[in-house]
Amino acid sequence: MPVLVDINLTIREGEIVGLLGRSGSGKSTLLRTVGGLITPSSGTALYRDRSMTGPPEGISIVFQSFALFPWLTVLGNVEIALDALGIGRDEVRRKALSAIDLIGLDGFQSAYPRELSGGMRQRVGFARAIAIEPVLLLMDEPFSALDVLTAELLRTDLVEMWRDGKLPIKSVLLVTHNIEEAVMMCDRAMVLSSNPGQIIAEIAIPLTHPRDRQDPLFQEVVDRIYSVLTKRKVESITPSIVGIAQVLPNANVGPIAGLLEALAAPPYNNEAELAELARSLSFEVDDLFPGSGCA
Ligand SMILES: Nc1ncnc2c1ncn2[C@@H]1O[C@H](COP(=O)(O)OP(=O)(O)OP(=O)(O)O)[C@@H](O)[C@H]1O
Ligand SMILES: [Mg+2]
User: Fold this and answer.
1) Which atom of ligand 1 is found nearest the CA of 30?
2) With contact defined as beta carbons under 8 Å apart, do 21 and 44 qualify?
3) pLDDT tens digits for 80-102?
4) Which residue from 106, 177, 223, 284 lies 20 to 30 Å from 44 (Cα-Cα)?
5) Which residues line the pocket of ligand 1, CB cutoff 6 A?
């Protein structure tokens, strides 16, 4: 199954690029390819003009799930990233403490992840990622496991540090489901379609920081991205027959029974266009029958 097709993406110095798309569109796959964790089955992923044979030095990732080692302290979790660089012990300690300080965790060096709130855990994730002073920082939905206010605080802190040139980073690629988050933080947003993932829009966000959600221009960009993301492509779907080679998605019995009932009742009487049925049930066709365009 091709996940990504025809991707042409360049991340330039000095910019934060947002990557948006529906669940399963291939955002994480693309982010991991950019990070050298996945080798593309065709085409090339270049880092500073050289093709990658694994994760290169100079790229780090912040994960949605924080991905901290529970048996290491905050300091240990940050130092472990620096240890991999093969620099001296003192240098490791100095850089780790400075990242911890910068990211607002001063005083928590000796705490274990279980002793921290979610927001603080993700701050450790950020400290670990920036401690190695990466050229490119990759973030895969870094705020989505946090409550609204904590996420907002962390976002604002990061944008401020970025704007003030305090972060030792040249560029950022941010994967997010949250359109407002992208418009709040990014210089441009790339939108991926699903099945297969293709870049269907590149939207510049030429707003100055600090950005204001109430600003009509802000809302205009949000609306533009929203309309690209939710564009109904029902007309462009080519009907095909479901063969036995196609794996059907898992579904519960209840919703299937409901679907059959709706299909059996008038006005359909056992036969319906999938797109029409989806519309009458207020579903996106992709949600009603993921990965398919067939009736
Ligand atoms: N290791 C893998 N092996 C095979 N298929 C995979 C693998 N990882 C992801 N996929 C498939 O690639 C597609 C894209 O997955 P991906 O995780 O990149 O989506 P996503 O856009 O990040 O979704 P979400 O928003 O839910 O995180 C999915 O169909 C998924 O099943
Ligand atoms: Mg993902």
Assistant:
1) 18
2) no
3) 999 988 899 999 999 999 999 99
4) 177
5) 3, 21, 23-29
Please name the residues in contact with 46: beta carbons below 8 A apart, sequence gap of 6 or more.
Answer: 52
- Cβ burial, residue 237 (10 Å; 0-12/13-18/19+): middle
Ligand 2 centre from 64 Cα, in Å? 9
From residue 36, alpha-carbon distances to 56, 59, 81, 221 in Å are 7, 9, 16, 31
Residue of 136, 134, 131, 127 whose CA lies nearest to 82: 131
- Token match 């709040």: residue? 184
Please give the model's pTM, rounded to 2 decimal places: 0.78
Residue for token digits 């966000």?
Answer: 205
Domains parsed from the chain with CATH numbers: 16-229 (3.40.50.300), 239-288 (no CATH)
